[in-house]
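Sequence and structure are no longer studied apart. As an example, we show below a sequence and the tokens encoding its fold:
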Amino acid sequence: MKPRRETRGKHADHLIEFKESPQKGVGVFAKANIPRGTRIISEQALLKVDLEAVTLKNIVPAFERLSPAQQESYLQLHEYERDLLKVAVRYDVGKSWQELPELHRKVLSIYAANAFGCVFFLGSRINHSCIPNVNFVYNELLKEETFHVIRDIMAGEELTVMYIDGINRTQSQR
């Protein structure tokens, strides 16, 4: 499954490909050997939220401000509906999960599964590992999130990032 090209992101087509990852949905894989330090993706956020005041109330309106093509791209992303999200909806939105329209539940579930603060269409395709081989950081000069390989990657290897701050956490906590 290739990402739609309506996104503004750039990626190293000659180095990476998007394909099914066993038990993880879509993932990013090396098409060739990739040396440490290589930028593989650079993109603006698909879904932006105010990171100073992010609540579940902000996410659906942010989605509704997207163009129809961007909404379509967003809705292609993996969703993850968990009990903690349902409790947070009750707290932040004041409604039960089932009281929300189906589209709103989908938008929130996608955000819960893909947010790096904001949601990045290409970057969201990179799966999690507690021992990642890719790091991501916002590049102020480019005004984009950039994803760089942090160790040499072999052709065929899946690229991974750490979704959470793993510092001072045990493996079971991560």
Observations:
- Residues 102-114 form the longest helix (13 residues).
- The helical segments are 56-64, 68-75, 83-93, 102-114.
- The chain is about 25% helix and 25% strand.
- The chain has two domains: 13-44+121-161, 58-114.
